[in-house]
Each structure stands twice: as structure tokens, then as C-alpha cells.
Amino acid sequence: MSRTLPFFFVSAFANRPFSGNPAGICIWPSELSETELFQQIASEVNATVTAFLHEQSAGEFHIRWFTPTVEEPLCGHATVAASYVLQSLGKTKDGKLVFHSLGGDLYASIRQEDGAVQLTFPSSIPVPVAPPSNLYESLGISAESVLYCGKNDIGDYLIELESEAVLRAVAPDFAILKGIEARGAIITCTHESPDFDCVSRFFTPQYGVNEDHATGSAHVGIACYWNSKLNKSKLRGYQASARGGVIEMQIEGSSVVIIGQTIQTMKGMLT
Question: What is the pTM of this model?
Fold first, then answer.
């Protein structure tokens, strides 16, 4: 590279240091056309996702997301992390941001009372489906432990399991799961703690991330599902990955607002 650019490392959906989902954030000085270079940088950074941003006008950005192996069409946690960075740099417009992406436009704002990032997605309601013959096998679960199986238009299977103990014990065969036609697989159930409405895990080896730490976009489907089951428009979820993540969800008409706290862990220069 013949340029030096500031680079940020921010954890989204983090309620304490070294929790949540880390993302690399880079504000690019020109149009986001250098796909091969972006993929090389993301592979070198080796965060679950690295986001590249280019400012188009005040508070309006083009965004692309790369895992260490492929480009993603949609990523919630890296957009939450990017919103935090842009807020810290004074790049919002009246506390609001618009992101144009391969997966559509996303709208973010900063919650005044605590600085949490609020990210608005279109609803993506799971519909019941018959699971592929090897889906349960790939997750290492029995059909008897499954209370529901559906799929949404993001491409995620959503499976409700009978208990949190079963959910936490799941140990997928990622080689099998990677071959299933989907963006990934969500497993979820009600949480044993009254502090949360639901608990989940998300597996997406199709995009080079076996188990994601805390996934904003997956919680769009999770919010829609538990809204219909619990009749609650405001929900609080815990993603039971090794790092753990806390995600607030709010149903607003045909949209889902995903809300998360952020913690910046590093800032440096990309050379």
C-alpha cells in the first residue's frame, strides 16, 4: 500500500472488555473498488469481519464487509462498530448515519442516554420449513430436541431447542454444516435468567466463521421469532459464544432495531 490510514478495532455488543464481537474498521479515501486488496487486509487482520467505509456525503457512507475468506452482503456487528468510530470522529449528521451496502441501506443512530448504537434492519420473519436431511446431524442435535425449524430471507435457518443446556452443549460438525445451502444456522431458546428473553448461538462456516461471537443481523430473525412467541416488542438476548454478547432488539412496524454497546480496544495505522 502506498498510503497510511487510521485503523480501529472495536467490539460490538460488548458489555465488558474482551466480550462481544470484534471488527476492524477502516475509512477508505476513495471509492470501495479494491476488492482484492480489501480481502487481503481482512485476511491479515483476521477479525471475524473487517469493514471498509467511504464517505459519500455528510452522515452517508458506502460500506463493504469482509471476513478473513469472503465478502459478506450484510453484517450487523461491524456496522455497529463502524457507527461508534464515525460518531467518535464527528462524522454523523445530527447523530444519524446511512450506510449503502450490497445488502441494502442500513440506518444507524446513537442513543443519547448511554451512547449505544441503534441499527435499523428490514424485518426478516422465519417461516417453517422442513430441515435438510443433514442439518440436525451437522449440529449434533436430535429431532426430539427441536421445537421449531424455520428459515428467513436473509438465508438463516432458525432452530428453537428445548433447553439452554442442550443449546450450550451443541458441538457442530462444521464440514457438514458448510455444505448446507444457507448463510448460517441459528439455534435459540428461552434464557434461564430473567435478565434475558432468549439465548442463541450462530454458526456460519459458509462465510469462513465457524461460530460468530455476537451477530446483529442474525438477531433480526431472532427478534421476529421471539416477538411472535412472547408477544413482546422489546427483547433482550444473549449470544452464548466463547466471548458472549448482549443484544437489545425492538420491533418497530416492518423494521427491527438492533441495539448494542461498543468498546474500542485498539487504534493504529494501516500502512
Answer: 0.92
